[in-house]
Write the structure tokens for this entry.
Amino acid sequence: MGECNMLELKNLSFSVEENGKQKEILHDLNLSIDNSKFVVITGPNGSGKSTLAKLIMGIEKPTSGQILFDGEDITRLSITERAKRGISFAFQQPVRFKGIRVHDLLRLAAGKDISIAEACNYLSEVGLCARDYIEREINSSLSGGELKRIEIATLLARQTKLSVFDEPEAGIDLWSFQNLIRIFENMQKEIKDSSIIIISHQERILRIADEIVLLSGGTIKKQGSVEDILPELIGTTAAVDACEKLK
Amino acid sequence: MLGLDDISKMILNEVADITDEPDGAYNFRVNSQLAGRNTTENINIVSKENGSGIDIFIKPGTKGENLHIPVVINESGVKETVYNDFFIGDNCDVTIVAGCGIDNCGAHDSQHDGVHRFYVGKNSRIKYVEKHFGSGSGDGKRILNPVTEVYMEENGVMEMEMEQIKGVDSTNRMTIAELKAGAKLLIKERLMTHGEQTAVSGYKVSLNGEGSTADVVSRSVARDTSSQTFNACISGNAPCSGHTECDSIIMDSGKILAIPSLEANDVDAMLVHEAAIGKIAGDQLIKLMTLGLTEAEAEQQIINGFLS
């Protein structure tokens, strides 16, 4: 396929009503993401990063503008239809379900019955032992970190062309930073032409991006390679060093 | 199997997973008549002299045996009250599968009120599975009002799974249990009401002996305009521990009243109750939709999981 725009956001705006007034979260945003790209969207808190991710998945609908996926206008498509076309989404705060087990969720994600061995592959990728987790319910007995890893495993099982991760590193202990990065690399290798969008302000994730998109005040301030963008971000809240946070 | 018609067979399969003559002891009751019985060396079944039900005698030390006692009603207008008494000796380990299915295609109400009394011997372990099911397109209602009484001797264990997922128009169920020292009662109730159905489920568990424990967990879903009442009371009358949990999903115009209550009459009684009622969380639906499920499919998965 070569260079081709997998995802195009055209003049995208999104506003919400707050105290009877319209508050604009995103304003006339334009962004193109090619095949086989690893894009990190960063920016200060409240810059509209998570909203942008939700607009791509269809969880929020834009006030105006257009979203194209593989050339098709998906602006009016539901979450389900977008999922079926090959977009997946990892929640910043994964959802809990009483009675639904890890195996069930992976099966639903894969869209077919998967064996314990297959489920084990996905779980071991995220550092969980299948034997301990496969029958566990996705309820409050799991820690935030465990839920987060299971959330990532569901995206591995989905095997979609575009994967959007909303702050995947938040709540995951430092163990997993390297592993997380390895997971993203493997995902791209395994699925031809696939792209990954990550919402993050962790410097270590920014460093491995093909492209960094800096969002501020609801618009794109800058977009470019790590070399072009990262030096300016170091020391700002758009690029936080993990160890700094621990101090 | 036993010359039963197709509807009876379907209901037997639904309430007791029976497709063929079961292993072990059984007693089939179809439209208020005895339709088949088998006893074993250790499990005896005797009709009560006044015809109001059966007495079941399980010999002390009986292990690994099953007992099936399903009830089928497929005639419209049948109304019955049945008393089944279970006398379980000491040191047993037995599985009892009950269940009642009503298929009512007629205009008259059909009703089965089953009263089950269990006398559980010392150190005996009983697993009791009860499923209720209704079907049929008639205007006549399908009504089930079970009463279950459990009297447990020292160190007995009773595990009860009670499920009513579909088709019963009206149910008023009451479960009473009295536990002696070291006895353990585990109850798992699953209930779903739809249409205009009403369900009342009450529990009165008395922990009378030192070290007795009870765990009563109910999960329910109320859809359409159906209504449910859950009323569970655990009394701690000795050093004991009790837990009750009522967790419900409410949908459409359903109504749910949960009244968990605890009564401590001993300073060392440790009692806990939890109750939660809520609709399906929007983020649960969204998560499953991001996996490619439609909203209706997502809802079904969430309910199936919740009631599993």
Q: What stands out?
A: Chain B touches chain A through 22 residues (CB under 8 Å). The mean pLDDT of chain B is 92. The radius of gyration of chain B is 20 Å. Residues 6-282 of chain B form one domain.
